[in-house]
Specification:
The protein is of the alpha/beta class. Helix content is 36%, strand content 22%. It starts with 12 loop residues before the first helix and ends in a 12-residue tail after the last helix.
């Protein structure tokens, strides 16, 4: 006779309600202390253990690998330990189960670890802090073969991709959309909520406990500046002017994202007409993209700006990425090395001149909005340095603009630049 295994999890009524309501695609927005991570881990565990599929695979994702380990790993081990025959892999944050199933924890800061796998279900915890491209480019294909499901959970962080996804779910019968505010659930008692209101700012309280989409992002580096952009209607349709040269500003990465802002200067206006980001590709890929953008919009390029590390030479070849790019037909101007804080201040000084195309720069706008200072939980203060996550590469490219920007390059400066016909790129 088969033995019964009891998992030490007793869901609250609202948690049970969500367990019962979930569809293939679900968005659950809930306040702090709702118990979303415990709920999520146990939903994965139940589905994994009861699956009739061969070798079922499930994933829990947090914004970073460190967060996944800190937030969810202890929970997954705790609720799995009563199950006989499990194998815990501490180094890979993975547990294998007797039925051939597996649950593994991932961070969105290492998206390549998710490529090529298949999934029967996944939880995206704190989706508001994840790159919006992750699901479409990586996870949705992984769920296709076995018609797996996805559950997006978290607390709002402004009107970003999580907000867009929630609105889509709320208007699509194939999706589930649920919001649970602290004032409605009764999970956190009124005395505790009153104390929280007394300590937190109104924006923090509304965001964390009342699931407000419009509250300011806590610790946002450019929070005031982005709010001014929205207030002044500087985010919308921005035409590409073929007669005006397009300058590009880069942040370099290989394993990390490579990011590019496309900018035109019209009078005092600094117009962001396009943003591109990709990972895992060589320089040829990005040069091809620039060439395609040029053909599509009939533009010519001005100058291309990159951070100082473009001049670092690889030990295997003795060549820098600047050398490689030059051979492929693009000459970079190098932005001098600088302190991050100085770059941020320079960006803030220019921000009132920024205009963003809402569609072509959508992901870039999201990244700049989400770029925030790291929070020291022990000391209860924000650190002086921004958090390094999926949003930081885009913000770094923006910083290159601020530190490399000049209204008009002198002829002497142009003579110092590499002599390259930047209007023609070799197609690879």
């Amino acid at each position: 006779m088969a033995s019964t295994v009891v998992i030490p999890y007793s869901p609250r009524p609202l948690q049970q309600q969500i367990h019962d309501q979930l569809k293939r695609w679900s968005v659950v927005v809930c306040h702090r202390r709702f118990g979303k991570t415990v709920f999520a881990i146990n939903h994965l565990l139940r589905d994994c253990l009861t699956s009739s599929k061969e070798r079922p695979r499930y994933a829990y994702l947090a914004p970073t690998y460190k967060q996944a380990k800190t937030i969810a790993w202890d929970y997954l081990q705790h609720y799995s330990r009563p199950i006989p025959g499990i194998v815990i892999n501490q180094s890979e944050l993975r547990i294998d189960y007797p039925n051939g199933g597996r649950i593994q924890l991932f961070g969105c800061d290492t998206p390549d670890a998710l490529r090529g796998i298949y999934l029967d279900g996944c939880i995206l915890d704190e989706y508001a802090q994840m790159p919006s491209s992750l699901f479409g480019e990586v996870l949705r294909p992984a769920l296709s073969d076995r018609k797996g499901w996805a559950l997006f959970i978290g607390t709002p962080k402004g009107k970003n991709a999580f907000h867009t996804l929630y609105e889509h779910a709320d208007n699509d019968d194939q999706w589930l959309a649920v919001v649970h505010k602290a004032s409605d659930t009764g999970i956190v008692d009124e005395e505790e909520l009153k104390d929280a209101r007394g300590i937190m700012t109104d924006e923090e309280y509304e965001q964390e406990y009342e699931c407000s989409w419009s509250a300011a992002i806590r610790g946002a580096v450019y929070g005031k500046e982005m709010a001014a952009c929205i207030r002044d209607d500087r985010i919308g349709f921005i035409p590409v002017e073929p007669s005006i040269p397009v300058h590009t500003f880069w942040d370099l990465g290989i394993a990390d994202s490579m990011t590019i802002w496309f900018v035109q200067a019209v009078g005092k206006e600094i117009r962001f007409i396009n943003y591109y980001e990709h990972t895992g590709e060589g320089m040829a890929h990005y040069i091809n993209y620039l060439d395609q953008f040029k053909r599509d919009h009939g533009i010519t390029y001005g100058d291309h700006f990159a951070p100082h590390d473009i001049e670092v030479r690889e030990l295997s070849t003795g060549k820098s990425r600047r050398d490689t790019a030059l051979k492929m037909g693009i000459g970079f101007r190098v932005v001098p090395q600088h302190k991050v804080a100085d770059g941020i201040e320079a960006t803030r000084r220019l921000f009132n001149r920024f205009w963003f195309d809402e569609k072509r720069c959508k992901h870039g706008i999201e990244c700049v909005s989400q770029y925030r200072y790291d929070y020291d939980e022990k000391r209860g203060v924000f650190r002086d340095t921004p958090l390094h996550d999926w949003a930081s590469h885009c913000a770094d490219a923006l910083r290159q603009l601020a530190m490399g920007w000049s209204e008009v390059l002198t002829q002497k400066e142009r003579d110092m630049s590499p002599v390259v016909a930047k209007s023609d790129f070799e197609v690879f």
